[in-house]
Amino acid sequence: MDKKKLMLLLGALVIAIGTAMAARSLFVGASAPKAEAAQAPKGPKVLVAQRALPVGTIITADSVAFQEWPKDMVQDAYFIDGEADMNKLLGTVVRYPITAGQPVTQGGLVAPGDRGFLAAALGAGMRAVTVPVSAKTGVGGFVFPGDHVDLMLTQTVPATDTGQPLKATETFLRNVRVLATDQSTETTVEEGKTVVRAFQTVTLEVTPKIAEKIEVAQTIGTLSLSLRSLADNQGELDQAIASGTVKVPAGATKTQEAKFLSDAMNRPVDGSTTFVTGGDVSRFQRRTAPSQEPKAPQVPSFSSSFSRPSPAQAYSRGDGSTSVTTRSGSVVRVTRGKITSAEPVGGN
């Protein structure tokens, strides 16, 4: 190879190496374009349901909350944060079913004082009944609309024998929903804390048959409320489903299934009565109910042919009539056919 060709080959090699290095520095130094995520236009915060709210649900602080909503999807019927007064919404009742995450509309709530408010709070086939309570029988005021309670009846059964009267308390109703305390269906919140206040009456949601039982129970003794835990309803519902007592209809959608289970969980329970007597508390109290009032002992009557009647003795005739005959001394009754007469002993 001549000197000229060698010089050309070396020059081409140098140019190639330089080009490669320039290209490498170009790719390494160039920054990759940053991908910017498209942000949805932020809108105002609207009131949405935190969980499924069936018809008749009483709005509480934990059932709804304000959440950002796309501006172009906000409607005039929505409750807007900063415009709606949350304190006025607490205690209202859901008129139409609201699914979890769905905005709450102004037409979907019924406020206290509105026409048909209490009727909207009642479930299908349910009734409202009011019972008197005190600070002692009403859990010290720690019962609020929407809570579930058990009803206890305390009574004293008087003794007809020589023993003591029976003192007993029985739980005759379970899982009864509270609709209102006194004439209020809302929970008062001040500085983020629920205000506990005393009340004298409680309005409960029950079936027509249970309403009759409550009215009778008030004439027997004293009614008291026992506040239930929120976990009790779910636990009892799981047991009812496992035992087959509660069966979800076949082919039901998730929404229908959720509504069915919610109705079953809020249904009052009647029939599982438990009781405690004075004997279970103190050895000096009786444990069993007093016996029935003893009847007057009956003197056995003996039939005798001879008797000494009272001065005025009645005798029956065959035609159904009676005659009164005054006798003295010993007599003997003589029956001839259907006629009975008394003949004096030794007489004609």
Write a brief caption for the model:
With 348 residues, the chain is an alpha+beta fold.
Would you give an account of this structure?
With 348 residues, the protein is of the alpha+beta class. Among the domains are: 45-118, Type Iii Antifreeze Protein Isoform Hplc 12, CATH 3.90.1210.10; 126-189 and 196-250 and 273-281, no CATH class; 306-344, no CATH class. It is 23% helix and 27% strand. It has helices at residues 3-29, 86-89, 117-121, 208-220, 230-243, 254-265, 278-281; strands at residues 45-49, 64-68, 93-94, 109-110, 127-132, 148-157, 166-181, 189-190, 193-194, 201-206, 222-227, 269-277, 306-307, 312-316, 322-326, 331-336, 339-344. The strands form six sheets. Strands 5, 6, 7, 10, 11 and 12 form a six-stranded antiparallel sheet that branches. A three-stranded antiparallel sheet has the order 13-16-17, with no helix packed on it. A hairpin with a 2-residue loop joins strand 16 (331-336) and strand 17. The radius of gyration is 44 Å and the shape is elongated. The model is unreliable at 301-312 and 314-318 (pLDDT under 50).
